[in-house]
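Per reviewer request, we include the raw input and output of the structure prediction for the construct analysed in the revised manuscript.
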Amino acid sequence: MHVLPYLIAAYVFVIGCYGLATSRNLIHAVGCLAVCQCATYILLLAVGYRDGATAPVFSDIQPGSRPVVDPVVQALTLTDIVVGATVTALLLALVVQISKRALYVLGHAGVKAALFACAGILLDRYGTVDEFHLHGRARRLRGVGVMFALGALALAGLPPFGTGLGKAVSEEAVGGPLTVLHVAVSAVTGAAVLRVTARVFYGLGPRPEEREGEERDEDKTSGSDEEPETRRRLTRVPDTMRAVAALLLAGALAAGAAPGFAGVVARSVDEAGSWGVFSSVHWTAAGVLLDLLSTALAVGLAALAVVRPRRPAAPDRALPLRRLQSGHVGDYVAWTLLGMTLLGTLVAVGGQAP
């Protein structure tokens, strides 16, 4: 057995890993990943190699008249090449489009962090984040309720939040069915948070029925088992806790409203990801209309869920979906990875340059 092919495979793999660790450019990092993939080709060919053997193609020789290399390893190598090329193409397509999504991710992170901070306030103040148990109990936390509502509208894409600008740019970039999907997902997400806001902070809608000794299906994902971070419940919410949520929301608002901020984000990402190929990011009439549409849909769905909770919930039909998402961390990770893979594939296929 020759050792040289294995040494070459190890050398190529180490070179690729070194490039990944030291690269400051996304396209360069994708190329280094492809180099690491090439090491597997060499390794597979080395495993299936035989002295004096020929390729496992029997069109020109008699079967059994000459030794051939392992056909299974040859097939694995070809499959590896195809998969590697597909992954590389997908990653390059994402790199090309990443400048348009970076602003949305930045604004989305600020809004989600603000909502988590508001949820922490509820948990430390009332000892639970269960939507049913908190029905109408947080009326005194008016400021927190306003921030919760603003966060919900920002998730739906309300201008001029950074989530709205990033959403509009992404929708205009992909076009077609992906735009419909983006509007629908934003509307449903915002509606869910608006529904919680209406029930918890304003006491709207019918009060949930208490069932002694019976666990509702909603209880499995209600967050009723969350433990407060403080030793005892807070009688007054500190101003610092409110300030954190307010600053995060202000940052998400500045990402879309501050003049030139979106351009700075896009330029920075482009310089790091595609060697300075700058894509302009700005508000357009079509983008604003799509944002207003998703916001209006979110408000309508939330109102329907509050006034007639049985109608949009459809518990019997939604039960299989609820069982797929139990609320545990493992389910979140699995479905997040699945969603990212599906969305990345759709963007790579349907994405187009501005």
